[in-house]
Amino acid sequence: MLEALDLADRGRFEVEPNPRVGCLLLRDGAVVARGWHEYFGGRHAEAMALDELRREGLQADTAVVTLEPCSSGQGVGGKKQPPCAQALVKAGIRRVVIGAVDPDPRHRRAGIDLLEDAGLDVLDGVLASRCDELYAPFRKALQLDRPWMLCKWAMTLDGKTAAPTGEARWISGPQARKKTHELRAHCDGVMVGFRTAQIDDPELTVRHVEGKQPVRIVIDPLGEIDDDSNLVRTAHVAPTWLLASEDVDPVRSGHLQDLGVQVLHIPTAEGPRRLHLGRAFKELRRRGLRRILVEGGGGLVAQMFAWNAVDQVLAFVAPKIIGGQAAPTPVGGDGRSFMAEAWQLSEVRMETYGEDMAIAGFV
């Protein structure tokens, strides 16, 4: 189980809001295959291990897994993969050793019941407290009525996301940018604020890696995005949603929709340029989006922190210094008044991508 926990941790920051899981398959007490949940929407740990087992032409009698195998399949509650409990039964596994039972009350012990009904020997609660520690983000996600929000930015060593002129290409290097495209491919949506859409004119497409294209989302209360922007021009080939005020000019909304942009009307809060983000994000979840990558800017991220709507952060820090009081920072707004009130990250991980340092953590 300790080895399975190490495998599960490989999915940290990649699989949320899903749980990270590790799985070992054994034959006569010897490990013959390993698996883990690699990224959101990817194969489950049991499926990866079973795939390895088949490739090697081996058989297994025991599965050791950090979390109760899932009992429901694709399309149920937003699940993207087939049920693992049935896969273990079909593979001829005779014994399953489980760390933690499913925290989701809708499915709790349903996988165990399926395994036992099929005649398998099931032992659960092995290193249960250690396994439960893995699932704090998953338990949080189960309580949310909005998508899981991952805020990502690139900044210089002195904390700037652009030059004082607004120019920002490129702060980070090619390896960090490739990682960003991987993240896009592993999310249901990628979101920016109006000013980022206006100044950077991004495409927000998946280009440097293989993978699906997420829904592109712009927070634009007044519907001010330019018709000739990259996002609008490509709206017919990549799904593009614009979150605008209920009071936005209906002629403008209709024009954008004629151009292929889907306009979602959201109530405002604190003035016409501030959408009620609670209502906005709840609508995105209702439409099936479970994991969203937020790529700025600082005003939008600040509003999200104010709404307690940031779950995960990834910051690329480039070894560059640009200075300037007018240069933007990743989180704008009023911020916190005292250091003791700062938003704190947990389970922090630091990695290098070329010359850039990546710092990740849960809020």
Summarize, please.
With 363 residues, the chain is an alpha/beta fold. Helix content is 27%, strand content 23%.
Class based on secondary structure composition and strand pairing: alpha/beta
Main β-sheet, in a few words? 9 strands, mixed
Termini separation comes to: 28 Å
According to CATH, the fold-level topology of the largest domain is Dihydrofolate Reductase, subunit A
Radius of gyration: 22 Å
Strand % is: 15-25%
Approximately how much helix is present in the residues?
25-40%
CATH A-level architecture of the largest domain: 3-Layer(aba) Sandwich
Series of secondary-structure elements, N-terminal to C-terminal: HEEHEHEHEHHEHEHEHEHEHEHEEE
Quaternary status? single chain
Task: Tell me, rounded to a whole number, the average pLDDT.
Answer: 94
Please, could you describe this protein's structure?
With 363 residues, this protein is an alpha/beta fold. It folds into 2 domains: 140 residues, Cytidine Deaminase, domain 2, CATH 3.40.140.10; 219 residues, Dihydrofolate Reductase, subunit A. It is 27% helix and 23% strand. It is built from 12 helices and 14 strands. The strands form 2 sheets. The chain has a 9-stranded mixed sheet, sandwiched between helices. The chain has a 5-stranded mixed sheet with strand order 2-1-3-4-5. Helix 8 links the parallel strand 7 and strand 8. Helix 3 packs parallel to helix 4. The chain is elongated and about 65 Å long.
